[in-house]
Input
Amino acid sequence: MFKIKNARKAQSPAVGYFLCFILLTFSAVLTYVSPHGYDYIRSNLYNWPTTTGIVQSAKILTDKPEFHNEDTMYRLRVHIEYHVDGQSYHLYELYSGQANHWVNSYSTVRNELEDYSVGKKLEVRYSQENPGTSILKIPFSFASIVSSILALICLFYGLRFLCEAIYNTYRCINSYIKKFLKKS
Output
């Protein structure tokens, strides 16, 4: 009968280290550069102090299509004034990235507009380091959830490849030591 030898020889761990580096780097990039992940991690918005802001104006912006087959796009523009330590500041975006968030439903934006009547008082979160940096809403972002899950998967596999590379390094060193001792 056939005698099967251990098919898995000690391999150079360079590939494992390379894969580990790529996956861990990608994981870090996803964490810090994801659409809203950077704001959550860097700023920790939930811990920002709050102050009262007053709606100065609110209107619906319209983006007319260049071509006839495109939809007209809408977004809400709200101007809120708030004060920190006697200094007046202005907020024009309800949440980070709102300026790029256009929708094709006028009724959706119209319903949102009703929440921001002129003179209404709202809670504004602001950065202690730079009170001019503020936010009214902390948005739920599906993209940041997906990128966070992807970052965790990359982190897991990066650490797995790191462990495998360390194990292969041990096996390579061990095989070199055995060869050296046999020659001696």
Notes: The CA atoms of residues 22 and 158 lie 8 Å apart.
